[in-house]
Request: fold
Amino acid sequence: MLSLRIRFQQLRALSSVARTAHQIDNSSEFLSQAPHRKHPGILRLNMACLPTEAQDAVQVLLQKNNVRHLEEHVLSLNNYLWSRKRPPEDRQLREKAMELENKFRENTNFKSADLNIYQKEEKLKNDVLNTLRKNTYHWQPLSYTDQLGLVYLAARFDGGFAAVSRALQEIYQRVPDFNPQTLMDFGSGVGSVSWAAHGIWGNKLKEYMCIDSSSSMNDLSELVLRGGSDKGEMHISGIHFRQFLPVSPKVQFDLVVSAYSLNELPNFAEREKIIQTLWRKTGGFLVLVENGTREGYQLLMEARDIVLKASDKEVWDHRPAYVFAPCPHQLECPKLAGRSPLPCNFMQKYQPLRFSWNPSVGWEKFSYMIFSRGPVGDNDSQWPRVIGPVLCRPRHVHCKMCCSDGKLHHDIITAKRHGKDLYRCARNSEWGDRLPAMISSSCPDKTQFDEKESSS
Reply:
């Protein structure tokens, strides 16, 4: 009871300083064209559903191959992929080894007179290596065989499709004049990106370049496109498969996507090289999607620094990089400022594949980053992003947002203080949407919320 009272006092304190936090931005006069429940900051998909042709192809392939204990394999693979971390860097291992060596040298057992110098050094070396083995994450590359590819198809096809669809939908909605004709998908896997992009832009997309190092995955992706049969017609035309990333920057693609692939690279140097190559190949938008975990978020922040700092020496397209989404600014991510950075992630509702063990509705938690060649949009690019659940209460709304000033805000929006239009837009917004508002220059710093509260 005491904790609830303290919590209520904190919320009242926040409400007292959020009086002039935001004002409605109706510069495009959207309020005269659409109701508040359909304001242009709403980006969510009600339900992401794989096309019927794709779902039927999955059923045909799994029935034909009859993978034993499929449910157990799906659960195991999902848990492994969700908990997977980045491979440790050699520099980090050396630093850790030095710390352990200094620690063991101070140990009384090491100073024992019963051991000569050689024995002491050997014991020290063994102690350091054994401790490193026990406490270091053992990253292993995933080799997708025919069977593992089928398990991945059953485990991740629907969720991956949902996350990518949500990211691409934002481009489609915010930049209606963008009509890509070419797409490159790095780490294409079972083809989620191609299905998602085709569902949004349809036949406007003429060419798909799908790149995956596993020939088994490329074959499986093509089989899904053919309805599960070698002799079937391709549901999407213009798709080409390759095992290696073309490095020449002379040919660009309107849309470049990498979904759930950065953690498959063995070290930072390789990730930096790949990200730079992907950016060189980008003519319009570069879309990166990863798990909505701390690891996935940090992979995207790493990519953000690589692209924005423009450290690539081989530059053919001199148009600068801009963060199109989800950040409403080009500044450092405020979520990195806390002692223990929390991931900036989002949720997308989707219809799972038709398996007995799947629920009727699934939720994909993901993180994403979209870069554009040059600035895109006008004032609406500064609209704050809702980065947590919106809490609708009687006559007020709690919104946790990342704003154009590069700070996190917890605003309590009311009709009396902020106007009826902004209040109604806030009540109809959800996690991941943008609020059609401009931040006030006089907005006090006290509206920032700390990382502990953002996790509650």
Observations:
- The first strand starts at residue 22 and ends at 24.
